[in-house]
Specification:
About 50% of the residues lie in helices and about 10% in strands.
Length: about 250
């Protein structure tokens, strides 16, 4: 049975804090080229296809390139004309789509603040693979837990969650500046800030949380990021800030 167009299953919620800055210089790379490229490509895709500035194709993009569990599990099929790419490819393409400017900005801010140091620890090529695998793992967990969902999954939160998990394992003692309640800037260690953020994702995933948010996709990204940073990091890169001078 063809699936009916529906509201995208956003993979984001208003964050408990807004990361502003981390005092954590790069050590192995000159510039975070892959992080910058991912932000640029994701933003360009949103502007061209979803913002309405260039094209009005947000619903078509979500159906064709978003991850729809019911389609992946063959419970439903896409309407004629929407089958643009193989189903397996949507495990990655969904991460480059967003529901609105706030959704895009929130995800890209996390990628911007924390992605450079994860890229530094992995190297450019492995970081790109890391990002895409985290996105795919997040989608996989979402499909596993909601196999008959007909709502398109969109957003880079799964990949961003992987970055958060990796950053926390690499640099728990680094001091961050975060904006709490959208108005109060405070310095806090990554262990407290990101640990609390991860705890919130787990709490919402197990309690059900808000229906429009794919909490289990966040959990899948977190698990993938934690595992991958251990096995993919550059030789000599140590965990838990052991590379930092005391």
């Amino acid at each position: 049975m063809p699936i009916a167009p529906s509201v995208p299953h956003s993979q984001d919620a208003l964050p408990m804090f807004i990361p502003l800055y981390d005092d954590n210089p790069l050590r192995s790379i000159g510039r975070q080229y892959v992080t910058l490229a991912l932000i640029a490509v994701t933003t360009l895709i949103f502007v061209v296809f979803q913002s309405g500035i260039v094209l009005h194709a947000d619903r078509a993009a979500a159906l064709s390139y978003g991850l729809i569990p019911a389609v992946v599990t063959d419970y439903r099929v896409l309407p004629p004309g929407y089958e643009q790419i193989p189903e397996w490819a949507t495990f990655v393409t969904y991460a480059f789509l967003h529901g609105d400017w706030l959704h895009l900005a929130g995800n890209m801010l996390f990628v911007w603040v924390f992605g450079d140091n994860v890229e530094d620890a992995l190297g450019h090529v492995r970081y790109l693979a890391f990002y895409l695998i985290c996105a795919a793992a997040a989608a996989g967990v979402h499909v596993l837990l909601l196999p008959q969902s007909e709502s398109p999954l969109i957003g880079a939160s799964g990949a961003a969650s992987g970055i958060v998990a990796a950053y926390l394992l690499l640099h728990p003692n680094v001091r961050l500046w975060v904006l709490v309640f959208y108005k109060i800037p405070i310095p806090i260690t990554a262990a407290w800030a990101l640990g609390a953020w991860i705890g919130l994702q787990l709490l919402n995933a197990f309690s059900g949380g808000d229906a429009p948010v794919a909490w289990w996709a966040h959990v899948g990204g977190l698990l993938a990021g934690a595992v991958l940073i251990v096995v993919m990091r550059r030789p000599g890169v140590r965990l838990f800030d052991r590379n930092l001078a005391r």
